[in-house]
Amino acid sequence: MEFPPSARLSVRKYLGDAGDSFLDATGELVSKYGELWRLSELSFLDTQTVNLLFTCTSELYGSCILKACLPGPEVVTEINCLRAYAGKGYVRLWADNSEDNILLLERIIPGEQLGAVADYRERTRIMAELVHNLPCPWDGQTPFPSYRIWMEELQRNLQAMPDAQEMLDYLQEARRIYDQLHQRYDRRYLLHGDLHHANMLLNAARGYTIIDPKGVVDDPVMETARFLLNEVAGPDFPLNEASVARQLREMVAIIAATIGTPQEDILKSLYIDTALSKGWDLEELYPDPQAREDVIQKALATCKFVYGLL
After folding, report:
1. What phi, psi does 93 have (nearest 5°)?
2. Which of 166, 198, 47, 22 is nearest to 101 (CA)?
3. pLDDT truncated to tens, each residue of the chain (310 aa)?
4. Do 201 and 166 lie in a common domain?
5. Residue 78 structural domain
6. CB-based contact 97:32 (threshold 8 Å)
7. Which of 160, 172, 217, 233 is buried most deeply by CB count within 10 Å?
8. pTM across the whole model
């Protein structure tokens, strides 16, 4: 099976030289599960995401997405999260094999991402209503990480990097704010953990269906952060920080009114997720030292900007 250069570059960013062998193995898995699950019309879907997606038709379920994931613990947590929600607001999981890191999912049609909504106020309203209505309590048994676990793991990894001290400082402050926040918010709900614009798709009923969860157990106060972070990372930042700050504060006000969480606590969750997300950027592989340095400087600038909103 042939993959476009964009897919190869995306995979190599995470797997390095092992990316080519991963793609070769994925081609074999697609053939294997295409036959096992009786799929037809398999076609690669070039989304430029890290995981590999294929549109297909199932004899049992109709139009589907076959998802071949990069190996890692998030495959199991995604599967467990989708099983827990069982189609309530989330995409349906029809079949899976965690050993081969492969999932068969409902295909959402028409499937336009929430980012296609031009008005940021309307985007925010839609996201906030989804978040308000969706989180389900954790069953207390199925294992999932928390934001604290994510931060602890990231801290250990960054400590091994000689160029990550400034990012570690921001992460340490995020841990302090997280502990402070959880003196008031200590519910244990099953959250998405990566609820940005591309993970909310327009469905046939003209509502939105959520896809691609990380699966994390924490308080729902954390769930809007990744959506807001995507707004920070838009084309106007860092070119026009004042404009981005005004837009973010307006969006936070919309969210607060919808989900009943104080604006200052939504901003704290945004800072926590920013330190996490930008720290994770440092774990990726880059083609040369200058490319890595550029990422580090942008990560630090983003953390500084969001911290200034608190």
Report:
1. -100, 115
2. 22
3. 778 888 888 888 888 888 888 888 999 999 999 999 999 999 999 887 789 999 999 999 999 999 999 999 999 999 999 999 999 999 999 999 999 999 999 999 999 999 999 999 999 999 999 999 887 999 999 999 999 999 999 999 999 999 999 999 999 999 999 999 999 998 999 999 999 999 999 999 999 999 999 999 999 999 999 999 998 877 666 668 888 899 999 999 999 999 999 999 999 999 999 999 999 999 998 989 999 999 999 999 999 999 999 9
4. yes
5. 5-106
6. no
7. 217
8. 0.94
